[in-house]
C-alpha cells in the first residue's frame, strides 16, 4: 500500500490509506516528497496548539507555496495576532448573521433555477453559492465570478499547477482587488473591504499588502472550502438516504449534521507546517526545518477521539473535529461556512428531496489539500 496521503485526496475512498497511516504509521515520512505526516487526532491537535514550533510562515500546503502578499494563514506570532485582531473588527458575528437572509436568497435562487432532470450540481449550485456570498461580504462584483474561480483553481488545485502559473493567478486577482480598494477609498460602502480600509481607533488597520493578502485568501480558500463541503454533503446524503430523510423530516438536525459532515468528509484533508525545532513523537524524531503534514481527515476518524468513527451520525456529540483547524489559526470564516452549508443543504433538499447522484460520472478535482469536485451530476 502506498502511504503517500497526498494523491488520496482525490481518490474515491482515501480512508483505508488514512487508517493504515493512523493505526500503524502515525509518524510517517514520505521520502519522495520530503514530507512528514501526522494522522492521529492527538498529534494533529497538539501541533495546532503549538504554532511556535509548527510554523505557518513557510507555506501551509505540501509544495510550500507562499503567497507574495502577506496573509493570515501564513503568518506567525505578533504579525498574525495583529492581522487577526484587525480582521475580527469586520468579521463579526453581527455581520455574518446579517448575511443569513442573503445566503438563503442566493441558495433559493440557484436551486429554483435548476431544471428538472439532470444537472451538474457543482457548476449550478455548490460552486456559485459560496462565491456569491463572499462577493456580497467583500463588496466585489459577482459578475467577476469566472475570474475568481479561474485564479482560485490554479492555486487550490495545485497538484498540476506550475509555480509561475500560481504566481500569475495571484497577481491577476490582487490587481483586480487593488482597483476595488481605490474605488472604496473614494466611495466607501457597507462591505468588508470598506471596513478594513478604515483605520480603527486602536491603530490596527491593515496595510495595502496585508489587505490584498487577506481578500485574496477569502476569495480563494474562503469559497472553495465551502464549495467542497456542499458537494461532499450531497454525495454523502445520497449514500445515506435514511439520514437524508431524517434531515428532511426534522431540519433542526441540520446544525449537528453540518458538524458531522465536516468531520466525516473534511473539505480540507490536511495542511502543512514547518518545524522550528526538533520534535519527538512516539519515539520518532522529526528534525528542525522539516515540513509536517497534518492529516485532518485521518484525525477526524481516529477511534481514540470518536466512537464508531466510520459511522455517519447526524446527532454525534461531542464532535471535536479539526476540519477548521484549532487554536490561533482556527478558521475565521468557520461560522460563515457553517451557515452556508446549513442553509444551502436545507434549500437543496426542499427543491430536490429525492435527488440521485450519478456516481459513475462524479469527477473530483486534483488537489493536494482540498477534497472537491469538477463535476457532480445529479438527477432531480
CATH class: Mainly Alpha
Give the integer mean of the pLDDT values: 91
Shape category: globular
Contiguous low-pLDDT stretches (5 residues minimum) are: none
How would you describe this protein?
- This protein has helices at 15-24, 41-48, 77-90, 93-98, 100-112, 121-126, 128-138, 145-156, 163-186, 192-197, 208-239, 241-249, 254-264, 296-299, 334-351, and strands spanning 27-30, 35-38, 54-55, 118-120, 271-275, 279-281, 284-286, 291-294, 356-357, 363-364, 373-375, 377-379.
- It has 380 residues and is an alpha+beta fold.
- It has a single domain (6-379), classed as Cytochrome P450 (Cytochrome p450, Orthogonal Bundle).
- Helix 5 (100-112) packs parallel to helix 15 and helix 11 packs parallel to helix 15 (334-351).
- The longest helix has 32 residues, at 208-239.
- The mean pLDDT is 91.
Short description:
With 380 residues, the chain is an alpha+beta fold. Helices cover 48% and strands 10% of the residues.
